Structures are given as C-alpha cells and as structure tokens.
TrEMBL record:
The chain crosses the membrane at residues 49-71, 83-104, 110-127, 139-160, 166-184, 205-226, 238-260, 272-290, 296-314, 334-355, 361-381. The keyword Transmembrane applies. Residues 14-386 form the Major facilitator superfamily (MFS) profile domain. One of its GO terms (molecular function) is transmembrane transporter activity. This is Putative MFS family arabinose efflux permease. It comes from Actinophytocola oryzae. One of its GO terms (cellular component) is plasma membrane. The keyword Membrane applies. Keywords: Cell membrane, Membrane, Transmembrane, Transmembrane helix. InterPro entries: MFS (IPR011701), MFS_dom (IPR020846), MFS_Efflux_Transporters (IPR050189), MFS_trans_sf (IPR036259). It is found in: Cell membrane. It is a multi-pass membrane protein. Gene3D superfamilies: MFS general substrate transporter like domains (1.20.1250.20).
C-alpha cells in the first residue's frame, strides 16, 4: 500500500460494522473448541483427529492474509472484505453438512481462509482512515468485539452442540457472514494510491527491522496466548464438567478481555506501550504458573481470566505497533502480522492436540510457561527501544 490515503476519522456506523465482522470472525474461529468432544463422539473419532480441523482453520486463516492484502490493494478494502465473507458463507455451510472428519477439515480450512479477511481488513481500514495518535482506541474496540465473539462462541456453540447439533452452529456463522457482506456495501472505500508490486510490498516489510521483530513476537504470541485456548473447554470437561458448563466457564476469557480492554482504552494515551506489554505478558505468565500447578476448574478459570487480561494489554499494543511499523506497506504488514499470529496458533493446536488427547495437560501448560517468559522480556525491551528511537 502507498501512503496516499486520506486519514479522516471513520464514522461510528462503519466502526460498528467492522466490529460486528470481528465478532463474527472470532465466533467462527473459536466455536469449535467447546464442540470438539461432541463432534468426536458423533463421528466416532478421537479429539486429536477432530482438533486437526481447528489446526487447519488457524493455518489457512494465517496463510491467506497476504493474499487478501494483495487483493485489497487492487480491489479496495471494503470490496475485498465483502467477497471474502461471501466465500466464508460457502465454507461455513459446507462445514454444516460434511459426512466425516476429512471433509470437515477441508471445509474448515476454506472457511478460515475466507474469514481471514475480516479482522485484518478492519485493521487496515482503520489504519487508512484514523490518524496514528487516535488509532489505539478504535483498535481496542475492534479487539473487544473479537473477544466478545470468542466468549459468546464458547457459551452458545457448546450449548447448541449439547441441545441441538454442532452443524447448526457452523450454519449460523455462515449465514451471518453472508448478511455482513451485504451490510458492508455502505462503507466508503479509502482513497488508495497505485498498488505497489507484490514483491516490493513484502520486501519493504521484511527489510524493516522493527517489522521483523514484531512479526517474530506475534508468531510466538500466537503459540502462547492462543495455542492452549482451544483446549481449555476440553481440560474442564476432563474434570467432569458438562460440555455446556465447560464452555460457559471458559467464556470468562472474553469477559476478561472486555473488562481489561476498557482499561487499555482509557490508559492508551498516558501509559507507555512497553509497560502495557510488560503488564499483559506478566498476566499470561501468572496464568500458566497457576495451570501448571493445578488444572482443576478453579485454576483453569483464573488462568482464563489472566490470559484475557494478557491479550487485552499485550496483543492490543503489538497490534497498534503493527499498523505503524511499515506505514508505506500497511496492508502487507498487517496481513503478515495476522499470518504470524495464526500460524503460531496453528502450531500450538497441532502440537498440543496429541497432548490433550493423552490427558497431558500439565505438559501443555509447562511448555507455554517456558516460552512465555522470553517472549515477554523481548517484547517489552523491543517496544521500549522502538520508542526511544523516536518511532
């Protein structure tokens, strides 16, 4: 992307639509978590086998980012999001009618690749239309909507699977995605300059030191903050709780993000970004200390709340940094940021799935604890150095 955008504060209506898109995208992404046990039981397969549908979703969600960035530079931000949401509807409806796990993996991969355009598209749209000094507030609202989507998913998807069918949950987000595609037609397209060559955009990001640092950090963050999240309802279910109750308790994550996001929004202009990273990262570390010691219901719920706080403080700060680390190639930079985040999440789902299937919950939490400490230290020092260099 060029720097030729006219930055004017985006309308409240446009922000609400973008937030609803983020909500729907994250609802769709996380709703499989409380349904893993139900789907595995109905299809006569292991949780590990079904969890591959989650892993491929995360992977395709991440890999598709750069492709959508290239398309949005040429077709426009809003048009690209609308096309992607229509295709997500197709993938979601296919997910609802699949006959077996193999088909489910394929359908979820398609759906993830298409819903991939929703949040990064919104991030770039806000980056194109809101000055950087005012950007963290709408970005925090966007993240809050995504967190609410995750929270509602863990509650309602589990309940739908328990009392109706997991297929109905997939059909629900598919139809909402189609409706969103229609509603987004009223958003104004940002004015963009001539699109740069694809390789020029990628090279512009990958030869940028701060950008490389942020991309590396968010890859590890995806593993640490999102990797185990998919399996928290399974951990609770293993302790004897129902699928619905397990989903309800892990909804504490979204509620936590919602509460802490308001704090982040209020402090974003007065609190140094590196301090936000340190605070959020510290909460994540404490979460995994607790779950290593015990993975009973109380420890998991407390850890879930701390992870929500960690996401609110740490990820929102890295996300804001990502919109400014290579402003001349914002669409590509943000898409690569999302690619790294969900690649890390996919790695976590693939690595932790067999552990969860074997009941090795302590091992999963211990790995994330060990990885989270250097992540927090590096991110804090890196962001502080970036600020002192006048960025």
């Amino acid at each position: 992307m060029s720097n030729g955008t006219n930055q004017t504060v985006v309308s409240a209506r446009s922000l609400r639509l973008l937030q609803f898109g983020a909500f729907t995208s994250q609802f769709d992404r996380l709703m499989i978590a409380p349904m893993l046990v139900v789907i595995a039981r109905e299809m006569g397969r292991s949780v590990e086998a079904v969890s591959q549908a989650a892993a491929i979703y995360f992977l395709c969600y991440g890999v598709a980012q750069v492709g959508w960035a290239v398309v949005s530079d040429r077709l426009g931000r809003v048009r690209t999001m609308r096309i992607a949401l229509l295709l997500a509807m197709v993938g979601g409806l296919a997910s609802a009618v699949v006959p077996g796990v193999g088909w489910l993996v394929a359908a979820r991969g398609l759906t993830g690749a298409c819903f991939a355009a929703a949040i990064p598209g919104a991030l770039v749209y806000i980056g194109d239309t809101v000055p950087v000094k005012l950007r963290q507030a709408p970005l925090t609202d966007l993240m809050t909507s995504a967190a609410v989507g995750m929270a509602v998913a863990t509650v309602t998807a589990g309940a739908i699977a328990d009392f109706a069918s997991w297929r109905a949950a997939f059909a629900l987000t598919a139809l909402v995605g189609g409706a969103l595609s229609f509603l987004l037609r009223g958003l104004a397209e940002p004015e963009l300059g001539p699109p740069p060559p694809v390789w020029s955009s990628v090279k512009g990001v990958l030869t940028n030191g701060p950008a490389l640092l942020v991309l590396g950090l968010v890859l590890v963050e995806g593993l640490v903050l999102l990797g185990p999240l998919t399996f928290l309802p399974v951990v609770l279910h293993a302790s004897g709780l129902s699928v619905t109750l397990s989903g309800l308790l892990t909804a504490a994550y979204g509620a936590s993000v919602l509460v802490f996001a308001r704090v982040v929004k209020g402090r974003s202009r007065t609190m140094a970004p590196w301090r936000m990273i340190l605070l959020g990262g510290g909460m994540a570390v404490l979460a995994y200390v607790g779950t290593v010691v015990s993975h009973g219901a109380v420890a998991v719920v407390v850890g879930t709340v701390l992870l929500g706080g960690g996401w609110a403080f740490m990820h929102s700060t890295l996300q804001t940094w990502a919109t400014d680390m290579a402003p001349g190639y914002r669409a590509t930079a943000v898409s690569l940021f999302a690619t790294m985040l969900f690649t890390g999440s996919a790695i976590g789902a693939a690595v932790f799935g067999p552990m969860v299937d074997a009941g090795s919950f302590t091992t999963m939490f211990a790995i994330t604890l060990v990885v989270s400490v250097p992540l927090v230290v590096t991110a804090t020092l890196g962001r502080r150095r970036y600020a002192t260099r006048g960025a």
